[in-house]
């Protein structure tokens, strides 16, 4: 196991660590001159020598997948944007990042703000966007500050505003701080919030690519997705696909992370297909002394718990899905053998219940029911029937039963915990005589 923290940027090679290699040269690249000295905005300058359709072909050939959790190919998403009719066209960066256990976008925003701006400029040029917004969670105060300063520097250099780099292309980009709702991670709820409305998801179709912000064509992508674009334009899609070193069908690198009772919680840029064992033991230094891994979440709070004996699985979308979970954001959360799974799940479900927008009944009422049942079990006041009710909720709050993916996401850690650690739930229930009334029935 690793005995000291490893840097996020590996050996600092731009050929192998396109997202973070610059951090091996400087602690941060907030100054535009420092960024330009290290190939900054070179990808944009190459993009504007091409036609927008040609840039789109490059992105599609690289098979850049969304890095916010869904993993939908960005090039396909972009190709679905409505044709340019001369009106406003919007580009939005989803930097809400309120998924518990996820903090990768914060690092990119705070230390490499120009890399995000360059990536968004490449996307905006490709999509013929007229306006862009970086929608960032309100708690990311420092990140918003550095992004705003970077935007001012970019404007002064001619990368933003009117007639960008003498191309005749106009584009403006703004930072918009959100009001602090997890549901804004869903793109249509984010758009509603950006417009000044209540952050509820919208019915789809129409999709944002056709009718998004203010009823106009809109593309929404994650921070890390945009950060990939400058290097892809410089080095090409074949290079990008090769970054996964044959470990995975998913191309490129990914910012992996680990939190919980590991020795060195943090972030590392690694090829897709890196095993969970490598992330936990080699990069995070293994579990803290005297502790043993019991379970882990592959990619944030809205993924299914997996048992410790699965940590040799490659961390890519297909493999983790076959194992019964989702890759999500690739930020692992570990649970050690001293922790109670009932308590761990209850903690997560309280968050999801609080963050429900309340738009649909299954989510609005079902999640608090789950919390009440879990609390009852945790406090020795539940019974076996409550465990069965929890199992039923994972079906009643699943995909197709709710308006958006919030409740199904909330059910994933509960599903994984019941699948692999049901005995812990039942042991809690048997502490109370079966004859007593179910807590859920009382609710």
From TrEMBL:
Cofactor requirement: [4Fe-4S] cluster; FMN
- List, alphabetically, the NCBIfam families matched: nuoF_fam (TIGR01959), PRK13596.1 (NF010120)
- Protein name as it appears in the record: NADH-quinone oxidoreductase subunit F
Its taxonomic path starts at:
Bacteria, Pseudomonadati, Pseudomonadota, Gammaproteobacteria, Moraxellales
How it assembles, according to the record, is:
Composed of 13 different subunits. Subunits NuoCD, E, F, and G constitute the peripheral sector of the complex.
Which organism is this protein's natural source?
A: Acinetobacter qingfengensis
Reaction catalyzed: a quinone + NADH + 5 H(+)(in) = a quinol + NAD(+) + 4 H(+)(out)
The protein's matches in InterPro entries, at most eight in alphabetical order, are given as: NADH-UbQ_OxRdtase_51kDa_CS, NADH-UbQ_OxRdtase_suF, Nuo51_FMN-bd, Nuo51_FMN-bd_sf, Nuop51_4Fe4S-bd, Nuop51_4Fe4S-bd_sf
- Give the protein's function: NDH-1 shuttles electrons from NADH, via FMN and iron-sulfur (Fe-S) centers, to quinones in the respiratory chain.
Recorded GO molecular functions are: 4 iron, 4 sulfur cluster binding; FMN binding; metal ion binding; NAD binding; NADH dehydrogenase (ubiquinone) activity; quinone binding
């Amino acid at each position: 196991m690793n005995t000291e923290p490893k840097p996020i940027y590996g050996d600092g090679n731009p050929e192998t660590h396109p997202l973070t290699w610059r951090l091996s040269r400087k602690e941060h690249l907030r100054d535009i001159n420092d960024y330009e000295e290290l190939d900054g905005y070179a990808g944009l300058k190459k993009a504007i020598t091409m036609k927008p359709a040609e840039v789109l072909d490059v992105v599609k050939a690289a098979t850049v997948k969304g890095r916010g959790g869904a993993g939908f190919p960005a090039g396909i998403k972009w190709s679905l944007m409505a044709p340019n009719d001369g009106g406003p066209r919007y580009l939005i960066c989803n930097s809400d990042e309120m998924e518990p256990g996820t903090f990768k976008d914060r690092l990119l925003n705070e230390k490499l703000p120009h890399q995000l701006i360059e990536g968004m400029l490449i996307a905006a040029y490709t999509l013929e966007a007229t306006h862009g917004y970086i929608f960032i969670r309100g708690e990311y105060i420092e990140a918003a500050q550095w992004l705003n300063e970077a935007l001012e520097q970019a404007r002064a250099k001619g990368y933003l505003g009117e007639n960008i780099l003498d191309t005749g292309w106009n584009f403006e980009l703004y930072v918009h701080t959100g009001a602090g709702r997890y549901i804004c991670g869903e793109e249509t709820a984010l758009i509603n919030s950006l417009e000044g409305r209540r952050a509820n998801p919208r019915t789809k179709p129409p999709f944002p690519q056709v009718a998004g912000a203010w009823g106009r064509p809109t593309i929404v992508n994650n921070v890390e997705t945009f950060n990939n674009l400058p290097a892809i334009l410089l080095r090409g899609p074949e290079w990008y696909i090769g970054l996964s070193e044959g470990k995975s069908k998913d191309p490129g690198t990914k910012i992996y992370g680990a939190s919980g009772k590991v020795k060195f919680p943090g972030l590392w840029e690694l090829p897709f297909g890196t095993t969970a064992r490598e992330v936990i033991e080699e990069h995070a230094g293994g579990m803290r002394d005297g502790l043993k891994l019991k379970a882990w979440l592959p990619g944030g709070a809205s993924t299914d718990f997996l048992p410790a004996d699965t940590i040799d699985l490659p961390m890519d979308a297909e493999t983790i899905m076959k194992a019964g979970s989702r890759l999500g954001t690739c930020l692992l959360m570990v649970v050690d053998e001293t922790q109670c799974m009932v308590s761990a799940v209850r903690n997560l479900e309280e968050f999801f219940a609080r963050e429900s927008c309340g738009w649909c009944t299954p989510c609005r009422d079902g999640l608090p029911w789950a919390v009440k049942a879990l609390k009852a079990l945790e406090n020795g006041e539940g019974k076996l029937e409550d465990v069965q009710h929890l199992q039923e909720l994972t079906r009643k709050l699943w995909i197709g039963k709710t308006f958006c993916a919030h409740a199904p996401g909330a059910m994933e850690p509960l599903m994984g915990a019941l699948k692999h650690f049901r005995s812990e739930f039942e042991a809690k229930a048997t502490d109370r005589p079966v004859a007593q009334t179910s807590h859920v029935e009382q609710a």
